[in-house]
Amino acid sequence: MEVERVQAVASSLMTAETIPADFIRPEQERPAITTYLGPAPDIPTIDLSLPDRDSVARAIAHASKEWGIFQVVNHGIPAELISRLQAAGKHFFDLPPEEKEAYAKPPESQSVEGYGTRVSKDVNCKRTWNDHLFHKVWPPSSINYRFWPTNPQDYREVNEEYTEYIREVVDGLFRCLSVGLGLEEKAMMEAVGGEELQYNLKINYYPPCPRPDLALGVAAHTDLSTLTILVPNDVPGLQVLKDGHWIDAKHIPNALIVHIGDQIEILSNGLYKAVLHRSTVNKEKARMSWPVFLEPPEEWVVGPLPQLLSPESPPKYKAKKFKDYMYCKLNKLPQ
C-alpha cells in the first residue's frame, strides 16, 4: 500500500508540473482511456460531383441519420483557396500575443466574436486546451470587421472568397437534406431562416500539449447550429461518438467535414442526429480547424417541420426562438 501511495503521489506531481490541474479531464473523459482502439468504421465520405443527384441525397440522408456527420469531396471549393484560408489563419495565430489581443472579445460583450485564449471553463471548472478567433462572415449586414485581422493583409480577401464558395455548398447540402426526407428542396433552408441564415466562422487553434493523454481541445458536445462545415489541418484530433465508442475521424485532404447540429435534429423531429464530438490535442504539433456554424437569426422560431408530424410521429421537441434555445444550451438549462 505504501508503494502504491508513493507512486500515486509521484504521478500527481508529474502531472501538476506538466499541465495545470484545471486542464486535466476526469478519467471518464481522458482520451488515453476512452479512445476506441479496436476496428472501427470510417465516417461516411460522399462525392458531391456524382451526376445522380438522388443517390447523393440518399447518401447524405443516410449519413445524417446513422452518424450525424460525414465528409464531402469534390465540393467545388478550390484546393488552392483552402490552402490560402489555412495559411491566413495560421499566420494570425503565429503573431505575438499582443497583436492577437487587439482582436480580443471585449469583457462585457454578450457576443461570441473575437479572439480568446484558454479562458473559459465548463460546468466542472475545467478548461480546454485551445485558442480561437470567432467572427461572422455572412450576411454582410451582420459583419463586424473589428474582429477580422488585418495581418496577414489578404485575410479579408481570402475569407470573403471562401464564404462565397461555402454558400454554394450549403445550398446543395440543404437541398439534399430536404429531399432525403421526402420534402421540397427548399424546405429545410427556409425553415432556418433562408437568406437570413447566419454564417459564423471560428478558427480553432490547439497548441502542442505536454500531456495530450489528460487534456481535451474541446470537450464532448453537439453543435447548437443547423449545420457546421469544417476544414481541418492535417493534424488528427476530431473524434465522434459512434455506437458508444470514441473513434478518430480519418483525415482526407481538402475534404469538408459536415456536422449535423441541434437545429437540424429538431427540424427533422429526430430523424437526423446531431453528432456528439470532441477534439483531442497533440504533443508535437498544433492542430487547427476552420468551422463555419450556420445559425438561424436569434428571433427565428425553430421546431419540428409540420410535414414530418403525424399521430404516429408526434413532435419530440419544443418550438422556440433560437436565442432562447441558445441561452438554455449554454447555461445547461432544460429545453
Automatic annotation (TrEMBL):
Q: Which residues cross the membrane?
A: none
State the Gene Ontology BP annotations: flavonoid biosynthetic process; pigment biosynthetic process
Give the required cofactors: L-ascorbate
Alphabetized SUPFAM superfamilies for the sequence: Clavaminate synthase-like
InterPro entries, A to Z: DIOX_N (IPR026992), IPNS-like_FE2OG_OXY (IPR044861), IPNS-like_sf (IPR027443), Oxoglu/Fe-dep_dioxygenase_dom (IPR005123), Plant_2OG-oxidoreductases (IPR050295)
Instruction: Tell me the superkingdom of the source.
Output: Eukaryota
**Which Pfam families does this one have?**
2OG-FeII_Oxy, DIOX_N
**Record carries keyword Cytoplasm:** no
Q: Does the keyword Metal-binding apply?
A: yes
Keywords in alphabetical order: Dioxygenase, Flavonoid biosynthesis, Iron, Metal-binding, Oxidoreductase, Vitamin C
Q: Which Gene Ontology molecular function entries are recorded, alphabetically?
A: dioxygenase activity; L-ascorbic acid binding; metal ion binding
Q: What sequence ranges are listed for the domain Fe2OG dioxygenase?
A: 196-296
What the entry lists under PROSITE patterns is as follows: FE2OG_OXY
The family assignment reads:
Belongs to the iron/ascorbate-dependent oxidoreductase family.
For this entry, the protein name equals Flavonol synthase/flavanone 3-hydroxylase
- Protein's organism: Rhodamnia argentea
Q: Which gene encodes it?
A: LOC115755110
